[in-house]
């Protein structure tokens, strides 16, 4: 009886959605508490529950896997916000594109720098390279470069969580108050999770972040094959 309940997809779908909605209510009461960011809260609580009850990830995935089906459609749906705010893209397209491209280049350089510092092998370098792009694209990039796909997914999620939690604080520290700049920063560094935070911050931030996800992903896909000779040389 217990096994049939635990292996029910509806149990894990309902639990995950319920935790997300609960975090939304808690966020309304304590808006400045980063722990109540819905995506962060739901992920942390699910992990703690699985560890405390010794339930395997395979059991959770009987229902949890359905959420991955919506990653790509949800990313594409962000184009709706971009359409509503297309005037900002037309006005600042040069700054937006240069910001995204420079962000990708700097991120790639940092990955190689840390890989050399900590003496990563080829597989680990390839695993970390797509950490700042959305999961749907990162999986393909990691696999094509010879990375560890499952670890790439974990790193992508962790990167997104960090961006969603600390992004707004970073903006305050460095006095970044332009909504376009905020959106581009969140989308190009912490993909969908950062975009969730950007949408909370405002309509313009959400639109620019959604655009940045797509452009960042495309740039990484284009640059990934070019990094293979460098990766082989360094590792």
TrEMBL record:
State if Transmembrane is listed as a keyword. Answer: yes
List where the protein spans the membrane.
6-23, 35-57, 63-80, 92-118, 145-166, 207-228
Q: According to its UniProt record, where is this protein mainly located?
A: membrane
Q: Which GO terms describe its cellular component?
A: membrane
Q: Which UniProt keywords apply?
A: Membrane, Transmembrane, Transmembrane helix
Q: Where in the cell is it found?
A: Membrane
Keyword Transcription regulation listed? The answer is no
Q: How does it sit in the membrane?
A: Multi-pass membrane protein
Recorded superkingdom: Bacteria
- Provide the protein name: TIGR00659 family protein
* Top-level taxonomy: Bacteria, Bacillati, Bacillota, Bacilli, Lactobacillales
């Amino acid at each position: 009886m217990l096994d049939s309940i635990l292996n029910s997809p509806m149990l894990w779908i309902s639990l995950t959605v319920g935790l997300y909605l609960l975090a939304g209510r808690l966020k309304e009461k304590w808006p400045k508490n980063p722990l109540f960011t819905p995506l962060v809260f739901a992920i942390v609580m699910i992990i703690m529950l699985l560890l405390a009850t010794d339930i395997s990830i395979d059991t959770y995935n009987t229902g949890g896997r359905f959420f991955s089906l919506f990653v790509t459609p949800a990313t594409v749906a962000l184009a709706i916000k971009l359409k509503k705010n297309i005037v900002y893209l037309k006005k600042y397209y040069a700054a937006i594109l240069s910001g995204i491209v420079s962000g990708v280049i700097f991120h790639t350089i940092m990955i190689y720098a840390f890989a050399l510092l900590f003496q990563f092998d080829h597989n680990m370098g390839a695993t970390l390279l797509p950490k700042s792009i959305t999961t749907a694209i990162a999986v393909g990039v990691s696999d094509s470069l010879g990375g560890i796909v499952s670890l790439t997914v974990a790193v992508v999620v962790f990167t997104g969580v960090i961006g969603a939690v600390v992004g707004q604080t970073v903006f305050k520290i460095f006095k970044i108050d332009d909504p376009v700049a905020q959106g581009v920063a969140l989308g190009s560094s912490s993909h969908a999770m950062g975009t969730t935070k950007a949408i909370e911050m405002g309509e313009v931030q959400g639109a620019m972040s959604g655009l940045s996800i797509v452009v960042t992903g495309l740039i990484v896909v284009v640059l990934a094959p070019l990094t293979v000779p460098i990766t082989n040389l360094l590792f």
